[in-house]
Known about the structure:
Layout: H1 3-22, E1 58-67, E2 82-83, E3 96-101, E4 106-131, E5 134-162, E6 169-180, E7 191-202, E8 208-213, E9 222-223, H2 225-228, E10 232-239
Parallel strand pairs: 2-9
Antiparallel strand pairs: 1-3, 1-10, 4-5, 5-6, 6-7, 8-10
Amino acid sequence: MRIPICRRFLGASVLALVPAIGGAQPLATTPPPAGAKAAAPKVPAATRPPKPESAARDLVVELRERAAPQQGAGEASAPAAYVVSTLPADGGVPVQQVRVQSGEKAVLRLVHSTPMQWMLSGQQATNNLAVGGATAAQNSAGITQAITTVEAGHTLVVTPHWAGTGRPVRVDVQWQSDTVAERTGAELPATTRRQFSTTVRMPLQQWVTIATRGATPSAGSYSSAGAMEPLRALQLRVSLP
């Protein structure tokens, strides 16, 4: 037995194993295709920010006009003045309703139209008559009349903003009021226009008075003027459909 032969055999075996161990490479991975976007990491549902409840939520906006209480709010006592009127006690103005998205604009109108007749033009003519030496004058007049419509009422532009459950509604309000004075002659009555804009905060599902018009009759008075322009309240309500 020769030791050198064994050494050469063992040496060759060791040298043959070294490239196999040292040259080992990690498994190759397939690169993503060109232009592909990396997938976003998944976020657990518990850590995701809540979606705003009011996003793209529809709201119902209602407008009405009612007789304002003569005493303090909630009191049912009779008014101090005595008013005679052929109109309904509440005015009979129906509720106006519109559906609008939160943050968008809606227009509501309460208008009363009254036809009125007025003199457009007038002409006067004189005819002279002669009979057997006697003369006479005959006067005649012609009147042209026209009918026009006079409108009085309110125009309300509202933009509601709702932040979600438990929050009040913020409403941007633009209000316009047209009133007609009492007619005293053949001419058309004068009209008056008032405008204002404001921002109010109000709870859902509740009527809120945003403006009043008219006047409260004085205590102890007896007049028909109070029936023509009683104290009235313009009320607004915002609710969920």
